[in-house]
Each structure stands twice: as structure tokens, then as C-alpha cells.
Design goal:
mainly alpha
Length: 129
Amino acid sequence: IHLTLRTEEEETLDGLIDTIRIKAEKLAIRDQLSFSYSFTDRFPETKNAAFSVDAVKAAVDALSYPLFEMTAPFLPSEDFGYYLKETNGAMFYLGNGVDYPMLHDERYDFLDSHIERACSIFLKLLELG
């Protein structure tokens, strides 16, 4: 069996893993099966620092770019959480709009205009820093 688990916080994920592992072990014992498990691509939570989020908002505002704040957590499989374990920061996305194919969709086409926009935001962050 292969499954993907995603949660907002690592503690919640650890609890979910323990619950599934314990249940699987009990079922294996009950049915006289062997049991083992392993992980692939386990990523830590991506927890943005509040002041880093504020800095991104200030940079975007100073550039008069539109800003959309997500109201619900976005739970991609992401390694950026490793960086945030070492230093404060904030992950943000440059969107293509609601009617644009999502990343990993075969119709997705990266918009080259995002390169200039991203660079402008990063330069403004340095300037405001």
C-alpha cells in the first residue's frame, strides 16, 4: 500500500503516522501477516515567519502588484520547509489566475513574465530589508 499524508503541522503528521502504524500492526498480527513501512519524500512543515510575510506584503504593495492571501493552507509536497527550519522566511507564490492550468497539468505553460516579477519582488525585499 502506498499513501500520501499531508498536514499543516509536523506534530499532527506524526500523530497520524502513529495511528496508522499501530492499526496496521494490529491488523497484521490479527491476520498473521508481516508488516513493515518506510517513507519517501517526507518534508517538514512550511511555517512562514510572520515578519517575513509582512515583508513580502510590503514589497508587493510597494510594487503595486495584486496580492491574494490564501485563507486555507496549501499543502503541496515541498522542501522549502527545510530552509525555514534553519532561518526565518516566507514562501509565496506567483499565480497565473484562477482559469489557468495548475502546475503539473499537461496544459500548464510557465509564464516568462513571472521571472521579471519575481526578481522585482526579491529586489524590493532587499531594498526594504
